[in-house]
Amino acid sequence: MERVASATPSPIAHSVRGLSDRAIAWVFVAPTIFLLLAINIFPLIWTIQLSFTNYKANRIGREVKNVGLRNYERILTDTDIWLNMQATAHFLFWTIALQVLIGFALAWLINKKFKGNDLWTTIIVLPMMLSPAVVGNFWKFLYQPQIGLFNYIISFFTGVEPSSFQMLGQVNLAPWSIVIVDTWMWTPFVMLICLAGLRSIPDYIYEAAEIDRASKWRQFWTITVPMVMPFLMLAVLFRGIENFKMFDLVVQLTGGGPGSTTELTSINLKREAFEKWRTGYASAYAIILFVTVFGLASIYVKALNKVKER
Amino acid sequence: MAEVQLKNVSKSFADTSAITDMTFGIDDGEFVVLLGPTGAGKTTTLRLIAGLENCDAGSIEIDGTVVNHYTPAQRNVAMVFQQYSLYPHLSVRDNLAFPLRSPILKTPEDEITRKVNEVAEILHIPNKLDNKATELSGGEMQRVSIGRALVRDPAIFLMDEPLSSLDAKLRADLRVELKRLQAEMKKTLLYVTHDQIEAMTMASQIGVLDEGRLVQFGTPRDIYQNPNSTYVAARLGQPRINLLPSGLFGENGPQGASQIGLRPENIEVGKGRDAHILRVEHLGDQTRLHLKFVEHDLVTLIDAHSDYQEGETIQISAVDPLFFDAAGSRIS
User: Fold this and answer.
1) What's the complex ipTM?
2) Residues of chain B contacting residue A211, judged by C-beta atoms under 8 Å apart
3) Among A232, A277, A286, B305, which has the minimal tally of Cβ within 10 Å of its Cβ?
């Protein structure tokens, strides 16, 4: 009995400074909580507060007036902002669609047991490891109409003159140019998650299906797809949130142009906040984006949980 | 239902040979059990017949047709795997219906419902039909995977130790149930196990495997009474057959006999040579005696109500012993 009792650790703090274990726990957690409050919660609250004012961050002395919901009203009725929203939706839809399709297909191929598939995985994953600034910059060269490899390859397959089109400079092509780069860079991420999903399906399930006389096609649709679906949806969630905030690649490639065809909401927001210095207005804008992405994500997570339960 | 023939089938994985020159036949409506320890090639034999592996040599015939290069689907076999290989994302109902929904069969949906309900009834799981496959207990899962085979009308049922992961009571129940089902439905069934009781109680024919070879094939009674080697003799019977050097009882063995095999019923207590009682085990319906007989340990059964004590000396003699040569082969 006695040995059991002494083996149970007595409250460590007792011998230290008369602090209880609970107090020690707080001491360890405190720095994290402090940082979280300082760089997440406080700015959020401050932003909400600013969104109801006409505050301008470059005019420190100016009197700050409370304008109520006017900032929100102006944003939601601004047709230009709706265009930015549409550009963002277009970008989101196509990047996710392409990344899911190509990512799943690649994962499916890599999952076939062939020699050197580990090497291929490494090669495919490389783009994801580069800095977006670097990626943006070298795609700028690839898209260059006179010397760019991209234009050359397109012309090789279609016969169109390489210098006859500008991926980054033409209104109809620029949105696609950023979709292509984002897809190139982030498809590997979707592939990795799909691969994890595919590898989680045990072989014997396919053997059972083989015995049950299910064709490869039926095995794919009734076993592979449903069992990978939770993983795939998780990948879509990550990519969706990331791309809703897309900034770095677009700044490097088009800077929002030509005109405002590639001006995604985050680019537009940055212009309002740090070029026009309409801090109050930009705060309201940020809150609207935050609520949108948060709302969409929560609906999506609910759907994801439902799929997982199935 | 159909008959299945294996002719000189061999299979090896990399450098290890799993099955060597295996030949046997399963007649229509028969219940054949392959018995052997882990690694004897039992599962590989099933997988070869199912078409999940291809044999290196020999031929496999189902209903007179060589099926060596047929896919599992073309062979029309049903298989119950050792792990419950249910489709985890589907309900029990959909798991059972899965083989019926094969486009090859074109089963109408009301026919599927009827069959699924029927099989669920047989396996005592009708109230679990709408559960997800992962929400079942181990016993229920294995019953569902047996059910997934039963809904079909295949050439042969293949079962890979389907009861080994169940608890003792459920195992005993399902053993009886399976035998009854097979007998009623006149199904051809090949069953793999390392459990001699399953083999003895269910089989119409037993094949004993040793390191990828079929060492004896016959009815349970025949294999029990006429084992062709010490290996086979030791696989059946509880307590195990006692193996002794021949001549200890002064018996006249045939030429070349170097060992004798004595099952408990071959040992007569009451006359003959002295043996020392080491331990008495009362099992209720029977009593086991552990004996020391000239340097050798023996186990035998006696009447449950006898009152022998440890340390006593009794007389035993051998009745109709089995004779084996030095290598363990039977001589008669």
Assistant:
1) 0.81
2) 50, 52, 72-73, 77-79
3) B305
Omega of the bond leading into B254 within 30 degrees of 0 (cis): no
User: Please, is B36 exposed, middle or buried when counting C-beta atoms within 10 Å of its C-beta (0-12, 13-18, 19+)?
Assistant: buried
Comparing CB atoms, the residue among B71, B102, B132 nearest residue A212 is B102
Q: Which residues in chain B are closer than 8 Å to A218, comparing Cβ atoms?
A: 102-103
A95 burial via Cβ count (<10 Å: 0-12, 13-18, 19+): buried
Q: Does CATH number 3.40.50.1370 belong to domain B4-234?
A: no
For each of chain B's 332 residues, which pLDDT tens digit applies? 578 989 999 998 888 888 899 999 999 989 999 999 888 889 999 999 999 998 899 999 998 889 999 998 889 899 998 887 889 888 999 999 998 888 777 788 888 999 899 888 888 888 888 888 888 888 888 889 889 998 888 889 999 998 887 888 888 888 888 888 888 888 899 999 998 888 998 999 999 999 889 999 999 999 999 999 999 999 888 888 999 888 888 777 787 888 889 898 888 888 888 888 999 988 888 889 899 888 889 899 888 888 888 888 888 888 888 889 888 888 87
Q: Are A132 and A248 in contact (CB under 8 A)?
A: yes
Looking at domain A78-309, what is its CATH homologous superfamily? Answer: MetI-like (1.10.3720.10)
Sign of CA dihedral A285, A286, A290, A293: positive
**Residues B111 and B152: beta-carbon distance below 8 Å:** no
Q: What are phi and psi of A110, to 5 degrees?
A: -65, -35
Residues of chain A with CATH 1.10.3720.10: 78-309
B273 with B251: CB under 8 angstroms? Answer: no
Per-residue pLDDT of A35-68, as tens digits, reads: 999 999 999 999 999 889 888 888 887 787 888 8
Rounded Cα–Cα distance for residues A203 and B302 (Å): 50
| Nearest-neighbour CA in chain B from A310: distance (Å) | 6
- Beta carbons of B190 and B158 less than 8 angstroms apart: yes
In CATH, the number for domain B242-331 is: 2.40.50.140
Query: Which residue reads 């299910």 in tokens?
Result: A214
- CA dist A92 and B131 (Å) reads 38
Q: What's the CA gap between A64 and A48, in Å, rounded?
A: 15
Of the partner residues B73, B85, B90, the one whose CB lies closest to the CB of residue A213: B73
- Cα nearest neighbour of A223 on chain B: B87
Relative to beta strand B330-331, strand B322-324 is antiparallel
CA distance A128 to A121: 12
Token digits of residue A270 = 């940055």
CA distances from A228 to A170, A183, A198, B4, B251 (A): 39, 20, 6, 38, 70
In the sheet that B156-160 helps form, which strands lie side by side, from edge to edge?
B77-80, B156-160, B189-193, B31-35, B205-210, B213-218
Helix (H) or strand (E) holding B22: strand B16-26
Q: How many residues does chain B have?
A: 332
Every domain of chain B and the residues it spans: 4-234, 242-331
Cα–Cα nearest to A228, from B88, B103, B101, B52: B88
Query: Number of A:B CB contacts under 8 A?
Result: 58
